[in-house]
Amino acid sequence: MIPRLESQIDTILAQPGFLGRLVEAGFSGEIELGDGSRAVYATDNSIYQLFPGGIVFPRSADDLAILARVLDEPEFRQVTIALRGGGTGTNGQALSRGVVVDCSRHMTRILEIDPERRRVRVEAGVVKDQLNRALKPYGLFFAPELSTSNRATIGGMINTDACGQGSCLYGKTSNHVLGLRAILAGGKDWWFRPADAEALHALKKRPDKVGEIYRTLDRIEKEQRERIAAVFPPLNRYMTGYDLAHLRAPDGGLNVNSVLCGAEGTLAMIAEAELNVLPLPGFAALINIRYDDFNTALEDARNLAALKVASVETVDEKVLGLAKGDIIWAEIAPFFPDDPDVRADGINIVEVLADSGEELADKIEAVVTGLAARPMSGRLGHTVAAGHAQVEAIWTMRKRAVGLLGSVEGPVRPVAFVEDTAVPPENLAPYIREFRQLLDGEGLDYGMFGHVDAGVLHVRPALDLTRPEHVALVKRISDGVVALTRKYGGVLWGEHGKGVRSEYVPDYFGDLYPSLQHIKRLFDPHHQLNPGKIAAPSADELMKIDAVPLRGDFDRAIGNDIRAAFDNAAYCNGNGACFDFDEKSPMCPSYKGTRDRRFSPKGRASLMREWLRLLARRDIDPRREAERQREAFGLLRWPSRLWNSLSPANRADFSHEVRHAMDTCLACKACAGQCPVKVSVPAFRSKFLELYHGRYLRPLKDPLIAGIETTLPLMARLRPFYNFAVRSKPGKWVMRQMGLTALPVMPALDLSAELKRCGVAVATVAALKQFSPSAVVFVPDAFTAHFNPQLVLDAVELARALGFTPFVAPPHVNGKALHVHGYLGAFEKAAAATTHSLRALAQTGATLVGIDPSMTLAFRSEYAKAVPQARDLHVLLPQEWLAQHLDRIAPASAPSGRFKLLLHCTERTNAPAAQGQWAAIFARLGVKLQQPPLGCCGMAGTFGHEVRNRALSDTIYGLSWSQEIEATTPGEIVMVTGYSCRSQVKLLDDAELPHPLQILLRLLSAEMKTVRGKVA
Fold this sequence. Notes:
By secondary structure, this protein is an alpha/beta fold. It is built from 47 helices and 24 strands.
C-alpha cells in the first residue's frame, strides 16, 4: 500500500495573523491555504514553479481595498501579493511565494454597457469572450485579440497589456482603456482617466497619494523626454508596462494608465476598467496561403501586409503537423489541401474585413490579384474561407497552436521562455534566420507561429527541463535572443510581459531604469506588490531566470517512465484551455460548475504531478504498487485500511487533497478530446483511486456502482422490489444512506423476451457466418438494455428497414463503471473477456454497433489501453455505421417540423465527426438537423446518481442543457444520443426524449407508408 504523504511545499504560509486580520477587517471573499490549492497556483503557462503562501478570492473592489489597508499595517509589511487572472502567463508574471489574489472567481460582473458612447465598465475577473458575447447583440466587440480569449480576464489583459492577432489594426489593450479603478498601496480607491492639461494642474495640487503620483510622473516625463524617445522603440509592440513613451497626452496632459497597463500588478490592484469598444466587422474572410518553406512564408509576409489587409498570421510545419492530429482539423482540412510532390512547410493566414459582401469580394480579389502580381518561388497555392463558421474554425486552429506544441510525445517538448520577441517587420525574416541558426546550433527542435505583420513570432524550443544540460540552455538561449533582438532593433517582450525575465530590464532601459525604480517606490513604497518583476529597489532584487525553480526541477524526481504512464498529467503545460468560460463548451464541467481551479484538468494534473513526486521521494513506483495491490487478498487488507481511515495521523495525507479534486471529475473525457496536450483526467484518476483505496476504505456506494452491470439481471428479475426501492420514501432513504440518489425506474418491457418474439437472435459465430456481410450486431450496454430496452428494439427494426440482418450481442460487462471508480484489476479482466467475445463476432465480417456513445467509445480508449487485442476491435457508433450506408436510406422530401439533436459531450469531443455524420444521415430524409453547441448534462454515467454529486450535477445541467430544453418550441423534435443525458432530462425537466435512431425509424416508416400508398 502507498504510504502517508506529507507535503513538502517549502514556501511558508502567509505571515501568522495576516489572514485572520484580513477577515477581522471585513474581507468577504474566500481564503485557501490548503496544500492542494497552493500546488495548483504554483504554476501557470510558463516553465517556472513557485508555491504561494496562500490564495485569496476577493468579491469586490472593497475587498481589494481592505487587503491593501491590512498590507499597509506595520506588522504585515513583509507580506507580498501577486494578482492572477486567467493563469495563462508564459513568463511567471503571476507566480509568487506571497499571497496570490485571484479575481477570476467572483469579480466577474459586467457592470455597464453604453452602446451609444461605445463604452463598457467591467470588473477585473470578466473574461474577454464573456464580454464580447454580451456586446454582440449591440453589434460591438472589445478588439484586442489573443489566443486565450476564452479564459483571459480583462484584469490580466490590462496587467500584461495584452494583444495578439490583428494588433496592427486594433492595437493593444492599453489603446482601448478609458479608465482604471485602481486600489493603491494603503487602500486608496481611485479612478485613473486621461487628464488634460487643466485637469492635470488640479490633480498635481492634491495633497494625497494621487497628487504625488501625478506630480512625480509629470516631472519624470519632462526631465527624461529625450531618453524616453531614445529608449522606447517605435514598434507596434512597444515595451509593455511603465510605458513612459505614451504617458504625455498630445494636449499636454497625462495618461497614468499608460504606466499601469502592462505593469503586471507591481504598481496597483486593478478592480474595474472602463473600456472602448468597436463595431463588429460585418464580413470577414481568410486567404490561406501555403509555402514549401517557412522562410519563404516569412519573406512573403511583407508583401501581404503591404496589401492593407487586417492581419497576417503565420504557422510553421511543426504546428501545422500537430494541428492535423487535433480535434479541429476535420473542419478546416479542405482549406489546407496536400500539394502534389511537395509538402507545405509553412502557411500565412491573411485576414480581410469589410462592411458588406461586395466590399469583401473586392478585398479578396485585391489580395488574389496582388499575389498574382508578385509571384514568389515556393508559394504553392491558396484557398479562401469566407463563411463565419469556416473563419472561426481556422482561427480556432491558430489559437490552439500554443497548446498543440505541448502535445508532442516524449519528455522533450516545446516550452515558452523566448517566445514573444518583436522586431520591426522589415527585419523579421533575417532575424528569424539567425534565431533558427541559434537553436539549430544547440541541436534543438522548435515550433514557430505568430503575428508576422507586427514583427512578432512565437518560438518555442523543445527541451526536457528535467535534464540539467537542458536547464542550462534556458539562460544561454535567452542571452542569445536578447542580443539578437537588440541587433535587429526589437524587444524581448513584445507580447507576454516580463515576469521572471525582468533581469534584462535594467540593460534594456539603461540610464532610464532609475526612473522606473522611482515609479515603483512611488506606487509601492514597501515593495509588496508582485516584487521582483519589472522594477525593484535594487537590481539584485529582480527575478532571474536561472534562480527561480523550474517545473522540471520538481519533475526530475518522478522520472520519465512514470511521467509517461500517467496520461500526460505531468506534461500539462498550463495553457488553461480547460478554464474556458463558455458554458456550452464541454471542457470542463466541474470547473464551470464550481469556478474552483482545483476541479479542472489543469488543477488535477498539477495535484497529480505533486502526488507522483511525493511518491517518488519515498521510492514508491505507483505502477509496481498497483500490481502488488491486485495480487494481495482484499479481505486481509481491510483492517489496515480501516485503521488508516480512522487514524488522526492520516488527516494531513496529501493524497486526500488529490482525492478531493478527483471526486468532482465527471469522467466525461472532454479533456481527453479537447485538451491540446491530451491530458486525460479520467485515465489517471482511475489509477489514483485504485492506489488511494488500497490505503483507505471505499464509500459504500463504490462497490454497489462497480457491480451494477452484473447485478442488473438480478434486479430485472426482482423488478417490483427494485422499483419500490427507488420510488418509495423508505427506499429512497435507504439508497441515500448508501450514497445513491435519483435512480431510474426499470420498465416492464423485457428485452430478451421481446427480441425472441421479434425473431432477433443473440449473435453467435455460427449464425453470423451465414448472413455476413449483411449482418449487423448491436452491442447494447447493460443500462440501455435494462432501462431503455425500447431503444434497442427500435435500432433492430431500423436495421431491418434498411435491409440488414440484425443480431444482438450476448450480455457482457462493459466495465466502464469499474474503470471510473478505480477497480482497474476487475476492469482489465472484464475488458479481456468482452474483447474476446466481441472480436470473435467481428471476425465473421459482421458489423458491430454500439448504442450509447460513452459506453461504445470505451472500447476505443479504456479497452485499447488495458487489453492489447482490443486495439483492432471496431465497435461503431450508430452514426458511423449509418454514414457508411447512406445509399440504403432512400432520399425523401422534408417532413414538417424542426429537428434538434443534442449530442453526448464525450461524443462531441472524442468522435468529432459525429455532428457531420448525423447531419448527413438526416439530410437523406430531407431534414436539416439543428445541433446546437452544448456542454455536459451533469449526469455523466453514475456521477449524478451519487448523493455527494447531486447538487453539482444540477448546477452543471443548469449551465446549458436546461436552457436548450426550455427553448423547445411546439412541434419541435428534440433527440438525445446519451442514455445518461436522457435520464437527466427526465429527472430535472420531466421530459422523455428519443434517441435519433428512434426518429429515423419513425421517418423511414412514414416514408415507406407514403410510398406504399402511392403504389396502391
